[in-house]
UniProtKB/TrEMBL annotation:
It is an enzyme of class 2 (transferase). It comes from Conexivisphaera calida. GO terms for molecular function: alanine-glyoxylate transaminase activity; L-serine-glyoxylate transaminase activity; L-serine-pyruvate transaminase activity. Belongs to the class-V pyridoxal-phosphate-dependent aminotransferase family. Its cofactor is pyridoxal 5'-phosphate. The keyword Transferase applies. Keywords: Aminotransferase, Pyridoxal phosphate, Transferase. SUPFAM superfamilies: PLP-dependent transferases. This is Serine--glyoxylate aminotransferase.
Length: 397
């Protein structure tokens, strides 16, 4: 540490399910000069963000609200703007972030109907449909599209959205960890509110959340603004959007970063970016299984953006991750909640590459080997290489 007390961490490969590695283009964008958040420079910046965000949300007329807050702030905003005291809200729960949505909705006064399944699985659409029908008048369905705690993606989002819309309910989706990394066409799937996070597949630093709101829900919120919040009152954001401003002081450097991230997504091509996440995820799953390790989640709901792996018997979570970090320069996450100490989690988000995959896998193999767990590194790399062929373009592992 320098004498002045400043802290400069050494460069590591950050393979967390957020925050993620931030590309140099985005870091440089944040170094731009400060501007007046009520002036023409910001108006131009925000206009571009709204336009490009709609392309990534795949919505023609969704109202975009960009809030200087973490993704949890976005979920809080959704609950406070959609739910009134006594409203019935259906929530599939298959991970810790589903549990958090239950808490958000209850704090907003909602009457929660939970549809639970064991972590590592997800409720079938038929179970959600039964809950919606038996609940009577349902105000909304809140769904975590990708729960990073078990590593589950809810693959029936389109189907349960149809079920909810047929019942006259709003559909609210926590897509914080998966926006830009998996299929999510808001208009086609009839999603009323989609929440996106910064520090996940967009490769931004933490500190900003995007909400895309359907016209139907926007009209409802504008007529019925929340009474228990000022900062998260989305009707204020809708009004300020008309003059290309934010109602409260925005985190301007992160807005610069968001604009550059959206440029990168659209230059790359959203579909291509999603496919890269899918291929890299498959490489992880195949490689880990080839090495004798066990993915935690059942195959049909495995996430493409966070890979969860069960620890072999006798391996201590802290010892493994500390070794992986200090000796191999790779940072992964442990489990939390009921999964603490049972799994580790690999983030496969944002600016990913075959080299990232290979370095992470070799670090995992090396750390387990030093802890006395036999892992076939050759089989691991061979399996990964087979899956990654379409991304390699002449590179080799």
């Amino acid at each position: 540490m320098p004498e002045n007390g400043s802290f400069y961490p050494r460069h590591k490969l950050v393979m967390l399910p957020g925050p993620t590695n931030v590309p140099e283009r985005i870091l440089l964008a944040m170094a731009r000069p400060m501007i007046n958040h009520r002036g023409p420079e910001f108006h131009q910046l925000y206009d571009g963000i709204i336009r490009k965000s709609r392309e990534v949300f795949k919505t023609k007329d969704g109202e975009i609200a960009v809030v200087s807050a973490s993704g949890t702030g976005g979920v809080e905003a959704a609950a406070l703007n959609v739910v009134k005291p006594g409203d019935k809200v259906v929530v599939p729960v298959f991970g810790e972030f589903g549990e958090r949505i239950v808490e958000h909705v209850k704090r907003a006064g909602g009457d929660v109907v939970e549809v639970r399944s064991p972590y590592g699985t997800a409720p079938e659409p038929a179970e959600v449909e039964r809950a919606v029908k038996s609940a009577g008048k349902v105000k909304a369905l809140f769904v975590v599209y990708n729960d990073t705690s078990p590593g589950v993606t809810y693959r029936w989002l389109k189907e349960v959205s149809r079920i909810a819309k047929d019942a006259g309910a709003f559909v609210v989706v926590d897509a914080i960890s998966v926006f830009g990394g998996d299929e999510l066409p808001q208009d086609d799937w009839k999603l009323d509110l989609v929440i996106a996070g910064a520090q996940k597949c967009l490769s931004l630093p933490p500190g900003i959340t995007l909400l895309s709101v359907s016209k139907e829900l926007k009209d409802y919120i504008s007529r019925n603004p929340p009474s228990s919040t000022v900062y998260f009152d989305l009707s204020k954001y809708f009004e300020f959007n008309k003059k290309l401003e934010i109602p409260f002081t925005p985190a301007i450097p992160i807005f610069y970063a968001l604009d550059e991230s959206l440029n990168m997504v659209l230059e790359d091509g959203l579909d291509r970016r999603i496919e890269r996440h899918r291929v890299a995820a498959m490489a992880y799953y195949k490689a880990l299984e080839a090495a004798g390790l066990k993915p935690f989640v059942e195959p049909r709901v495995r996430s493409n953006v966070v890979i969860t792996v069960e620890y072999p018997p006798g391996v201590q979570d802290a010892a493994f991750r500390d070794l992986l970090d200090k000796e191999f320069g790779v940072v992964v996450a442990g489990g939390f909640g009921s999964l603490k100490g049972k799994i580790f989690r690999i983030g496969n988000m944002g600016d990913i590459s075959p080299i990232n995959v290979a370095q992470t896998l070799m670090g995992i193999a090396g750390a387990f080997s030093e802890l006395g767990v036999k892992v076939d590194a050759s089989a691991m790399l061979a399996a990964a290489h087979e899956e990654l062929k379409s991304l390699l373009s002449g590179q080799s592992l």
